[in-house]
């Protein structure tokens, strides 16, 4: 028996207006076109109806308008074609320039490389200087010096010398300084300051102070507040506070007043060293010299008190800085989050997070790292993992600090599987690992009793070309001894720690 027809959910069309079939519609359309084609032209129709036709002047005007419209359409068509051709040519030039920049340091100066585009060479040099690829940058610079359009310029030398200073290459910086003089460029204050910075960053203070005295004898190169600030910062990094005192006295003798950068450098260094009396006296001196503090001053002060657990003093300073008209930035809130997290004041930490959300402060990688570390310290792995997932969903790439916080938290919770999950994340990423990460990993494996995996970390370090330090050896020895193991591995670690053995496992 045939099935009953299913009723359509849509209402049927009325019978008075049946829907034409496809064939009927096509026939109708074709008939309409034929009817239109058989109609007389407008002018003939107008004459048939008795309307007057356009005169010769009107027809001429219409013909001119049509010709102008066609000319305008042709002009636009040509412009569009030319734009597309120019776009393709520009893209081709950009691709060729990018390809040239990528391999520019592999080219050797010679006959076929003396007419490179200036923009290509300068962009390639700038990219390498910014990335601190000093070896590659020097090769590109040598190639640039061989170009027919090259003229010596002090500014390029200053940038290269500054880069070499950051890369701890003072001898290379001095060679470049001498090459600048040999090319006829007169050394100026900026070039001398860059060379002083290169030596002081590498701890070569004898050579840096010698250059400082040399600068005093040259009228146009006498040291200024920036030169002294750079030297002071390097001495503070080496905890050489006596030299800092001498430099400040030397500035006073020369009539050079410290600026806000100098004071901020001093406040930050004194705070990190726990020398709170000197830090406060520097802040008072800054105010007495009518040098207005800025947000960097506030952040350095808050970091010093918050990092040492003096939360009430930190909050008091925060209120005073705000009352003086200094507005906090994202770094300020990161410092507050970190200080409250380490002090286990999670309610205040939550209040800061709510404030940041309310006023649309975008979280940075530092913010995520601070919050992940705080939840890890509190043992709240669920919240920690949620923040980590949120971080990845915001397309913020985790760094070594993030991984260290995860490893430490999983080690305290004895979550072996999750520690290995972090290692799989490392394998599938290009995150640069440092000695702090490996020391955290060694401690985590030792804490959960995985001594074989702990020993294998040494092989991972060799693959990453990371040399074990005293913390690595001490941590491994501690966990071996806690488990009652004192064999050849422990002896090897003792020798490695004392420098009696090389890392040749």
UniProtKB/TrEMBL annotation:
This protein's record includes keyword Repeat: yes
Biased composition (Basic and acidic residues): 72-82
Composition bias, Pro residues: 8-17
Gene3D superfamilies according to UniProt: Tetratricopeptide repeat domain
Domain of life, source organism: Eukaryota
Keyword tags: Repeat, Transit peptide
Pfam families assigned: PPR, PPR_2
Alphabetized GO MF terms: mRNA binding
Cited InterPro entries: PPR5-like (IPR044179), PPR_rpt (IPR002885), TPR-like_helical_dom_sf (IPR011990)
Protein family (similarity comment): Belongs to the PPR family. P subfamily.
PANTHER family referenced in this protein's UniProt entry, alphabetically: EXPRESSED PROTEIN (PTHR47874), PENTATRICOPEPTIDE REPEAT-CONTAINING PROTEIN (PTHR47874:SF6)
UniProt-recorded name of the protein: Pentacotripeptide-repeat region of PRORP domain-containing protein
Protein source organism: Oryza brachyantha
